[in-house]
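// run 5 | inverse folding | seed 20
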């Protein structure tokens, strides 16, 4: 198996929109329309599926319907990328319903998203070698991208072999959220707090671990979702490393909302199942998830992963806290972190 990069998108190509997890309720469809128009403004045709409703519960449709629609879009040669409106809670129910052999044999299609979509995207890369984009969901797409970062639309249109570097903008959103009900056309991030990457290992919550420079193929996703796949064939990062990156991986994880105790337990479980065995470095997304009286989110990461003896960089823009730094599962990555520079370079090779 080799990493398979989907053909770069060109104007006129089709992008499929479906909700493998949560759909969009009526009061938020104005934002959906704005997001679709943003994609169309790039010159693409948008095909919206039938599994989109958010008015009848936490999923857009029964699992067999969601799996069938996702399969249809990923194997339709006329559709070059698939993106959900956002994540959700139970995309895990789709995994036994997907035809993995057919996905492995099909011409690769970009699958984009994050949060609950990690449940599908990360196995898709590990099991079929297809590169996937852990980045903005569709509803985030209208936001103007801060300097130093890219949109998923920039990445899926990049040619094979393309190398790109992203750097943190130095600010993030620490409070509040945008209400799409009253402001469906919002396009500016509210980045109200200064912040930079933090090296955790060797320095606790202080940035005292020294410079970092590490390489390897990238793989990762949302902790609360991936932890449920630990020890199953759907999350065998070691087998992927043996086949595609024998010198090791760059593993990234991020906490969506669980408190520090839950994240600590989840990371311990993922470590015991071998998910971090071949990591040359670990990137941890910035999170607004709560700590506890005795354990911070940074402390949870150190408790579970500090014994691995590899660099651990926290507060990376690869999670639920705006802005967003898209990461390509399967791409070759190089991370650098010093006292005055932080960057992630990815090569589609």
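// decoded
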């Amino acid at each position: 198996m080799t990493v398979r990069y989907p053909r770069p998108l060109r104007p006129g190509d089709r992008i499929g929109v479906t909700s493998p997890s949560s759909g969009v309720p009526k009061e938020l469809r104005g934002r959906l329309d704005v997001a679709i128009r943003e994609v169309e403004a790039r010159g693409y045709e948008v095909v919206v599926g039938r599994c989109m409703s958010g008015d009848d519960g936490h999923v857009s449709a029964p699992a067999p319907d969601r799996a069938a629609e996702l399969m249809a879009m990923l194997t339709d040669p006329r559709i070059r990328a698939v993106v959900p409106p956002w994540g959700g809670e139970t995309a895990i129910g789709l995994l036994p319903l997907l035809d993995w052999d057919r996905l492995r044999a099909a011409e690769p299609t970009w699958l984009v998203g994050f949060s609950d979509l990690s449940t599908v995207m990360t196995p898709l890369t590990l099991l079929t070698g297809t590169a996937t984009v852990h980045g903005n969901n569709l509803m985030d797409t209208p936001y103007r991208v801060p300097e130093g970062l890219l949109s998923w639309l920039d990445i899926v249109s990049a040619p094979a072999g393309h190398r790109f570097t992203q750097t943190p903008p130095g600010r993030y959103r620490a409070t509040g959220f945008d209400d799409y009900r009253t402001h469906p056309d919002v396009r500016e991030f509210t980045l109200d707090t200064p912040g930079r990457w933090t090296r955790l290992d060797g320095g606790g919550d202080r940035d005292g671990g020294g410079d970092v420079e590490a390489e390897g193929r990238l793989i990762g996703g949302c902790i609360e979702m991936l932890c449920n796949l630990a020890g199953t064939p759907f999350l065998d990062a070691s087998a992927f490393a043996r086949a595609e990156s024998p010198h090791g991986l760059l593993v990234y994880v991020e906490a969506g909302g669980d408190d520090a105790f839950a994240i600590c337990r989840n990371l311990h479980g993922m470590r015991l199942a071998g998910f971090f065995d071949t990591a040359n470095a670990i990137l941890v997304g910035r999170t607004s998830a709560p700590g506890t009286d005795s354990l911070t989110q940074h402390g949870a990461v150190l408790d579970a992963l500090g014994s691995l003896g590899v660099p651990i960089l926290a507060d990376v823009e690869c999670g639920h806290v705006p802005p967003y730094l898209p990461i390509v599962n399967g791409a070759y990555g190089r991370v650098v972190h010093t006292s005055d520079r932080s960057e992630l370079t990815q090569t589609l090779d």
